[in-house]
Structures are given as structure tokens and as C-alpha cells.
Write a structure and sequence with these properties.
The protein is an alpha+beta fold. The chain has 5 helices and 5 strands. It folds into 2 domains: 79 residues, Arc Repressor Mutant, subunit A; 43 residues, 2-Layer Sandwich (Dna Ligase, domain 1). Strands 4-3-5 form a 3-stranded mixed β-sheet, with no helix packed on it. A two-stranded antiparallel sheet has the order 1-2.
Length: 135
């Protein structure tokens, strides 16, 4: 049982074969797949899976905070397993999503919150850009 499956079991979810398959697709994804992409990848492994099952499962996982749903200024959502804290840089030309961590940025966010009289409890940072063509 992988970590995501264990978290689902701990949350009391019944682990059906199709749910396990969706979890496998999410757990092995190296990108931030959309519902349609998760469905296509799952369908390659089990042709009987339905789009409705994928939607229901992703919504349930999102409600349980086991996956994170991102919009990334697109007309569809993308999903990733909720694991290590990181941020995203989205290439506006290709749609590629680059994950990054930065200790200085973490300190700066805490400092800003503290200066404004807040204890930072959650946040999400998405940067959007176009690749610089160096000559």
C-alpha cells in the first residue's frame, strides 16, 4: 500500500479497485494532470473506468485535502498529491509547471505576515512567466 492509499484508508475510504487505480495514476504522475488526463491514464489500465468515477474520486480526495486542485489560469483544474510544501512557476507559453522551493521566500512570507500582525497558517504561491531567450 503506497502512502496515498494509506492516507485514504486512514480517512475511512473504501478502497475499491478503481479508486486504487486513480491513486496509482496520481501517485506516479510527474506532471499536474487534469481530470481528463487522469481519466485517460486510468482508462489505459482499466477500460471499464468512467469519467464520473474519476471526477467523484478527485473531488473526494480534494475535500479530504489529500490532493490539491490547481487552476493555473486555465479553463480546467489540475491535480497533485498533497505532499511536500512547494510553489509553482507556470510557463504561459507552454503550460509547463515547474515546482520549486526557496528558503528565503519562506522566511520572507513569515516576516510579512508577522509585520501585518498575523500568524501564517497556509498559503499558495503561483508565479506566471515566459521563458527568457538568452542569446
Amino acid at each position: 500500500m503506497n502512502n496515498l492509499e494509506q492516507k485514504c484508508a486512514d480517512a475511512g475510504l473504501k478502497m475499491t479497485g478503481q479508486r486504487k487505480l486513480i491513486l496509482q495514476v496520481l501517485d506516479t504522475a510527474e506532471d499536474h494532470p487534469s481530470v481528463e488526463t487522469v481519466y485517460e491514464r486510468a482508462k489505459e489500465l482499466d477500460s471499464s473506468i468512467s469519467m464520473a468515477t474519476v471526477y467523484r474520486t478527485l473531488n473526494m480526495l480534494d475535500e479530504l485535502n489529500l490532493v490539491i486542485r490547481h487552476e493555473f489560469k486555465e479553463n480546467f483544474s489540475r491535480y497533485e498529491v498533497n505532499e511536500a510544501h512547494h510553489h509553482h512557476l507556470i510557463d504561459l507559453e507552454t503550460g509547463d509547471v515547474i515546482e520549486f522551493q526557496n528558503a528565503e521566500l519562506e522566511k520572507l512570507k513569515e516576516k510579512i505576515a508577522n509585520e501585518l500582525g498575523f500568524d501564517l497558517v497556509d498559503h499558495r504561491l503561483e508565479l506566471y512567466g515566459k521563458k527568457i531567450n538568452k542569446k
